[in-house]
Amino acid sequence: MGAPWRDHAAWSIVERAEAAFGEPLADLILDAPAERLARTREAQLCVLLTSLIAWEAIRDDVAAPVAFAGHSLGQVTALIASGALPLEDGVRFAARRAELTQAAADAHPGKMAALLGATVEQAAEACAAALDGAWIANDNAPGQVVVAGTPDGVEAASARAKEIGVKRATPLNVGGAFHTPLMRDAADALPAELANVTFETPAAPVVSNLDAAAHSDRDDWHQRSAEHVAVPVRWRESMQTMADLGATSFLEVGHGAMLAGLAKRTVPDLAVRGIATPEDCALLAEVG
Question: DSSP characters for 124-179?
Fold first, then answer.
């Protein structure tokens, strides 16, 4: 993921992150073995760094963003990109966030499943049938809702979803029931990790996973950043919020195209572009 950027000026993001973090990070996005990248902390640092490198490469070419937003871990990326969270603090926080959510997952084992073709109402009904614990974890886009909970709870919710007409319930290859009450241990521990972090006023509003609202303040991100690991990611609503703010196009910054696909389903009238390589930056400069 990082190889295309190795000789780009934006690689300075990695050097700054390494200095703040106190350990090598470049190898994570260049040549780390698969077994190392299977660890939650390392995988999330990869995603964070490659997204921030791409943003660093284009930020001077993006005229006045209407808003920033990020899905789950991406909310940390969005806070850094907006200037609300210093890079150095953000990298350290992302690592601890990953460690604490994985610890919560180890203490409270769980699963996740995508309900394809489901409405939020159907997902809620399916979860209500799971007496052992299942909750909506991600409201991603029309027809894509992710549920999570205890293994038995997710099995029961998936079975009920099929009974009420949901097209498919697909188990996700993840290590826990993220964005559910099973992450409460992590949410309770995260404020201490942010106690010495000073948030700044963002360059443009940041749309929170917590409430899908755009926030221009600097005062409540300590609480939002901790609480959001134990509540659903309201991504469908977040994209609509950005459209309502006047966005005319979306930029998905970083490796992959999952969020672009969700945007096309949620706000199909808006253009979506992806920035994952230096070549994408050149294309963005050409089309404006």
Answer: HHHHHT-TT-EEEEEEEETEEEEEEESHHHHHHHHHHHHHTT-SEEEE---SS-TT
Q: Is the dihedral of CA 116, 122, 124, 128 positive or negative?
A: negative
CA–CA gap between residue 135 and residue 257 (Å, rounded): 26
Backbone φ, ψ for residue 257 (5° rounding): -140, 20
* Topology adopted by domain 109-171: Alpha-Beta Plaits (3.30.70)
Domain range summary for the chain, segments of one domain joined by +: 3-105+183-287, 109-171
pTM of full prediction above 0.90: yes
pLDDT by position in tens, the chain (length 288): 999 999 999 999 999 999 988 889 999 999 999 888 888 999 999 999 999 999 999 998 887 899 999 999 999 999 999 999 999 999 999 999 999 999 999 999 999 999 999 999 999 999 999 888 999 999 999 999 999 999 999 999 999 999 999 999 999 998 899 999 999 999 999 999 999 999 999 999 999 999 999 999 988 999 999 999 999 999 999 999 999 999 999 999 998 899 999 999 999 999 999 999 999 988 776 555
Q: Which residues are catalytic?
A: 72, 179
Phi-psi region for residue 207, left (φ > 0), alpha (ψ -120 to 50) or beta?
A: beta
- Residue 276: which residues within 8 A CB-CB, separation 6 or more? 50, 54, 254, 255, 256, 257
Q: Domain 3-105+183-287: what homologous superfamily?
A: Malonyl-Coenzyme A Acyl Carrier Protein, domain 2 (3.40.366.10)
